[in-house]
Every structure is written in structure tokens, then in C-alpha cells.
Amino acid sequence: MSLDAHRHKKQLGQHFLSSPGVVDKIIRAVAPKPGEFVVEIGPGGGALTFPLLRAHGELTVIEFDRDLIEPLAIEGSKHGRLTIVHRDVLQVDFGKLGHGHDVEGPLRLVGNLPYNISTPILFHVLEHAEAVRDMHFMLQKEVVDRMAAGPGNKVYGRLSVMLQAVCRVTPLFDVPPGAFTPPPKVDSAVVRLVPKPAAEIGLADPAMLDRVVASAFQQRRKTLRNALAGVCGPEVLEAAGIDPGARAEQVPVAAFVALANRLAAGT
Ligand code: SAM
User: Fold this and answer.
1) How far is the CA of 62 from the centre of ligand 1 (A)?
2) In 3D, which of 157, 137, 134 has the Cα closest to residue 147?
3) Whose CA is nearest to atom 5 of ligand 1?
4) DSSP characters for 64-108?
5) CB 3 within 8 A of CB 46
6) Residue 108's closest CA among 22, 36, 167, 173?
7) Is the minimum distance from the CB of 46 to ligand 1 under 6 angstroms?
8) Measuring CA to CA, how many Å separate 31 from each of 51, 52, 111?
9) Residue 115 Cα, ligand 1 centroid: separation in angstroms?
10) Three-class SS state of 161
11) Does the CA dihedral 82-86-87-93 come out positive or negative?
12) Pairing label, strands 104-112, 36-41
């Protein structure tokens, strides 16, 4: 089957980019340099893949839809050196992803992600953050807003804290539904994520941070004294510099990290 004849699969989040202007903006934001290891998640019909290949000469893509693999390989060979990994991205070990012949260094990930599993993909990739230099992802705008929100913002929550603890999050630009075929029901946005070095993150136990943050935001109107009653006493909050009378949405990321580190250390 050709890429043109492909029927979009809703269950795989297949909204293919059909705006050359948006493709161009993404490629300019990534600005791949010779020798870098660029990996695209979900190449679909190649809207980003082929221009990226032409810009960079070499690309690895991860695609789950078997119907797309052969047509991608045939068309891709006309544009550059394309390596196709036919797998569920959630099963890919980014710490071991095979490097191509001439490429080296940490991964530069790019993708117009399937929106139904975008958050699981983000957290899966971040399990191997040390292998990743940066990510440029198209996501639902609402998700990007939550990822980038700071304390005091009504969409500041678990996703904001868990991501900002380990990455620098920079929203780049919004993309309307009309830039895709078929158009999604929601607005989209492109975001840049850059993993922080481990020393800068200073996080002893990511699972503890997740536990604290999940509990804190579960009932976001509650004071932390109450919301975290099952996790720690108010004296531990105070020792971490957090007012027990505050609500989760007022607490900066660094204070959550300090609290999780205290709990991980048993202090
Ligand atoms: N990059 C193309 C574009 O911009 O036109 C397609 C983007 S489309 C939003 C998402 C792509 O991710 C589809 O090609 C879909 O088949 C693929 N996909 C969905 N779930 C996947 C998974 N678990 N692992 C790998 N690829 C997946």
C-alpha cells in the first residue's frame, strides 16, 4: 500500500501534519547538526520524516503501525538514510537504542506524538533521561500548558512538577487543528524539553517525589497538612521549608524536591 492510500487509525492517534509551514517551523526549532543522533517517534506518513531526512541525511524512526513500515522505507530511501524501528515506543529502551553508522552522542527526540499516550511516552522517555539531549514534541496544547505551568497557575499540577523537576520545559508555538489530516478536536502546541543534569536535579528518589506530589495534588483544595497526612507530619513539611497551611498549587517544584529528599532520607 502507498502512503497516500493509508487510512488513518484513530486508535493510534493518527492525525498527520499537512502544513508545510508547521513542519518547517519544527525543523528550524530542532536545527539538527551533522553527526547528531536524531530519532522521530511516530513518523506516520512521513510529513516530518522526509523533510528531516533531507535536512539531516540520517534518521531513526519508531513506528507501531505495520501498514506504514514498508511504504515509509520505500519513500524514505529517496530522501536519506532511514532506520525504521517497528515497535511500540513504550517498549523501546532509549538507553540502548542502536546508533547509526556515523551518528553519536545523546538522543535528539522529535515527534508529533499520538495524543492518547503522550504522557506515558514522556515518562517512559524520562526513565532514560541521561541518554537524551533534548525533545521537541507536538502535544495537545492543554497538556503543554500543564507541563509548563508554575505555582499559582490553575493548571499547575502533578505533570508540571514531575516534568519540571527533571527537565527545562519551553513551549515554542501553537498549532491549530487545520494543520492536520484529519484535524484533531483540540489545539496543539510544540514544546522543547531539555533534561537537566542529575547534579542539578538533586533528586534522591523519583518514586518518592511522585508519591508526595500525587498525594498533594489529589485534593488540590486541601491544605498540605491534610493532603499529606498519610505521608508525613507538619513538622517535616516545615523542615523542608513548606507552610503546612499552604495548598499544593502554591508550592514551587524545588520545595517538593526538598520534601521528597527528606522523606527518602528518613528525616
Ligand atoms: N509524524 C506524523 C505526522 O506528523 O504527520 C504522524 C503523527 S501521528 C499524530 C502519531 C504517530 O504515532 C502515528 O504514525 C501512529 O501510528 C504512531 N503511534 C501511535 N502509537 C504508537 C506507539 N505506541 N508506538 C509507536 N508509534 C505509535
Assistant:
1) 8
2) 157
3) 16
4) --HHHHHHHHHHHTTTSEEEEEES-GGG--TTTPPP-SS-EEEEE
5) yes
6) 36
7) no
8) 12, 10, 14
9) 9
10) helix
11) negative
12) parallel
Long-range own/partner contacts, residues 220-228 (CB < 8 A, 24 or more apart)? 220/157, 220/247, 220/248, 220/249, 221/247, 222/247, 223/247, 224/248, 224/251
The candidate with the shortest Cα–Cα distance to 25, out of 194, 174, 178, 193, is 174
Q: Is the CB of 191 under 6 A from ligand 1?
A: no
Q: Which residues, 6+ apart, have CB-to-CB distance to 191 below 8 Å?
A: 136, 137, 139, 144, 147, 148, 169, 170, 171, 172
Which amino acid belongs to residue 230? Answer: G
Tell me the average pLDDT across 138-155: 97
Contact, 219 vs 237, CB < 8 A? Answer: no
pLDDT (tens digit per residue) in 41-84: 999 999 999 999 999 999 999 999 999 999 999 999 999 999 99
Spatial contact of 30 and 110, defined as CB atoms under 8 Å apart: yes
In order of their start, the domains of the chain are 10-198 (3.40.50.150), 206-264 (1.10.8.100)
Q: pLDDT at residue 139 above 90? A: yes
Nearest in space to 109 (alpha carbons), one of 87, 137, 89 = 137
Cα 72 to middle of ligand 1, angstroms: 13
Residue to mutate, 8, 38, 89, 118, ligand 1, most ligand atoms under 8 Å from C-beta = 89
Question: Cα separation of 227 and 212, whole Å?
Answer: 10
Our answer on whether the CB atom of 114 is closer than 6 Å to any ligand 1 atom is yes
- Whether 151 is in the pocket of ligand 1, judged by its Cβ within 6 Å, is no
Give me ligand 1 centre to Cα 197, in Å. 29
Q: Name the one residue in this structure whose C-alpha cell is 501553537.
A: 174
Q: What is the mean pLDDT of residues 113-120?
A: 94
